[in-house]
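Good morning C.,

I know you're traveling, so I'll keep this short. The sequence:
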Amino acid sequence: MYYLVDAAWWLMWSDYVGFEDGSEARGSRPNEIDNSSLLAPGSTAKLRPYINEGRDHVFVLHDEWELLRSWYGGGPALPRRGITQGSTAVVELYGLTLKVYRSSDLSAAPVEMNISKAATVRELKEMACKEFGVVGAEVKIWDYFQKKPYALLDTPSKQLEQCQIMENNDMLVEEKDAEGKFNLKKNEGVGVGGSSTYSSGGNQNVVTSTAPPSQKGVVGLQNLGNTCFMNSTLQCLSNTPPLREFFASGDYEAEINNDNPLGHEGKLAGSFGSLMKMMWPQGDEAISAVAPRGFKYQMGTSNPMFAGFQQHDSSELMNFLLDGLHEDLNRIQDKPYVESTESDGRPDDVVAKEAMDNYKLRNDSQIHDLFRGQFKSTLVCPSCGNVSITFDPYTMISLPLRTAQEEMQQSYSVKMVYYDAADSKWVKNNLTVSIPKGAEAGQLRAALSTATSIPVERIVIGQILRSYIYKFFDDSASLDFVKTGTSTIIAYDVEYPKAFEYDEQPRSAYSRRAAAEPPKVDKAAMVLYFRKEESVTSTYITSSYNRTMKALYGDPLLFCHPKETSPNELYNAIADLLGKDKVNPEMFQIRVADAFGKPTDNHVVDRADMKPVTHGLKPKLHLVVEWVDWAKEQIQGMDGVQGKDEPEGVSGATPPSPGGAASAADENDDGYFGRHPTTPPPHYATTPTPTPQPTNPPPYHPIIAPP
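The tokens, ready to paste straight into the viewer:
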């Protein structure tokens, strides 16, 4: 069994212990494990679509998951089993969510059941019987596609995927009637209305709408999971007249080669041909939508890469499909040995024709009559100067949408934030800049400077994750993982960028690195977070409850403030930044916080305190802003005020507590205000070099550090 872990959390943990690259540990202890970003809305187990390993999540084994959860807490646990697709072993992320009806009560809402695609019909039947409280011998299981009895699942050992059961498939548990008989027949209605549905021959493609099309061939293809890549390819080929007419007319049937060892026993051609007949009927049938279930199943059988209902590349499918159709329709029964054709100084047209004639001795089909060309390849020996010219066949080519130079570039989406002093407002611009692949953060800074005309020495780059800045990048930092999970690159125009890149200490318990020296500047790096109280509904299985929590929201603000200051001056400076001439210090309160935006104690910095902070502010300080109740509604109607409840570009709210053992210790009241004189100074003050304490120490001041 494998367990999913949020990739953003994994990256923080890897930095904390130095796991990924074997380097020394760095960074802060991560929050508790939070896998909520991987889940579909309203679900505690079903994953949201389109998540990818590495970008959104990583896999760990059962024992590894139990260790991580015992150390950090959190969750939820997301176990997934390994299954086999063709000859490939994969971890099954999604499984199947089925909507199961009961024939004795079709008016009732279906029961949702989650089961593995590798599960058998027997396993599904046992699950359904347990859910409805019926005996297995008294029921049958039907594929109830489009709410019609599409196929009876009567082979207990057959896997659901082999039965073409897909995500959100309707299923029916048929019960015996009053006379103890099963009466349901394939494609007979059982009292529920809907579109006309029938299977065509044995191919099992399904008409899902019999409304007259706007014109012949305008037939939609129903999405079967994430099969838009397949449907777009089929629509392209369906609207290639010579190919379409060859299959829709049935002419292909006379050319099927059932014995070609490189083919698919004619099944792929038969499945494609049947679909073309449904999309382009020869008579007056009214068909406007088709579910290509039979074709999808045959594609997965012919190439396990296309099994299941996940997204794939359209060009890969088209390349495989054209090659497979060619082999199924190859007119050559016995392929002779053919030597490659060399130019030997002859004219290109002569060599090209000879090469094509030789190729057709082994490969000759209607597909190649329609889709075939030749590449000319020229090789020159660097030693003897001999020139070799060959002509190689192709069925399709991929044309680049970007130039060779663009292919060597990596594009980054960056939110650029700066304070416009002239207009007294913050400006946020979403930019896309390109730098060479593998480049370091310094080159991204230079590109941002070019794009914005902001001097490069004033730009600091960070990685924002759920409304807190997870890390700042110095010029030598790698950008390989900045797109992981739900994080965003954010850049600011600040006076002293190096002050923000400074780490006060190696915050990891595993690190042997000495703390870096802070930059020798007269201003402190200030990181301003916004925090609010919100109600959250937590759901567990069938029960739910409401709770109130503090959560970060919006984008942090960065600025530099003189180290020699007082709390009152700090409040006034922040008020001007939040909204000059609109916000005053009485409208909010600030708390000292850690890098995650979690207050380091329960005390509010006193806005009325005008005494200078002894020894000055720390080189880097994180603060949390919370609006007082009466100001919350007032600021909503103000333009140009930062930190509104739903500001533009909100990065998403997150619980402020890092969780785990570290956060439990942080919850203790350190007593910043009213602390015993021998305790450390406030966290926003610089810690002085220890000096001998006098016999009778002076009374402790709530802001000023002890001497």
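Safe travels,
E.
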